[in-house]
Amino acid sequence: MYILGLPYRIEDVNEALANIWNEALKSENESRNLPSDIVKSLNPFKKETKWCSWKENVITYLNSKRGQGGIPLSYVIHENDVPKIQLTYLMVHEQLISCAILTGTEFNTNNGMVFDLLQSLTLNGPAWTWINAFQIT
Asked: pLDDT tens for residues 1-42?
């Protein structure tokens, strides 16, 4: 609930709630139990690379990788800084991507992992100067 930025009272966090979340995640993981090679590895961004398809490949890849706190890494680059907590999500995976907070220890770790990935994919390419400018921060 904290990672999703949802308001909560400590007395609401109990074993029953943990079991509900664990069962939802287990069910999702089983239904998504796909071969590990279904998401192809990423190619570096080079001069001849088409931006839109490369961006979609990166998002798909990050959707398939979980970071600190078990959060899909694509939340780091989601479009909205303000979570849409009022929406009903069919899957915990979607909710985590859309609503996970962009502060805290988990975010700092995951943000660093995504940055390192982007840095390695843009090294010596046309986007390198843009990515490299953020290396210090």
From this structure: 778 877 778 888 889 888 887 887 777 766 665 555 567 789
Rounded CA-CA distance 39/81 in Å is 26
**Which ranges of 65-103 would DSSP assign to H, the alpha helix?**
92-99
Number of helices followed by number of strands (H, E) in the chain: 5, 0
Domain ranges for the chain: 10-132
Output b/e per residue, 108-120; b: 16+ Cβ within 10 A.
eebbebbeebbee
Distance (Å) of CA 29 to CA 24, 80, 103, 126: 9, 25, 26, 37
Tokens of 64: 């398939």
Instruction: Give the pLDDT mean for 83-108.
Output: 87
Q: Report the distance separating Cα 87 and Cα 66, nearest Å.
A: 22
CA-to-CA distance for 98 and 4, rounded, in angstroms? 9
Instruction: Give the predicted TM-score (pTM) of the model.
Output: 0.77
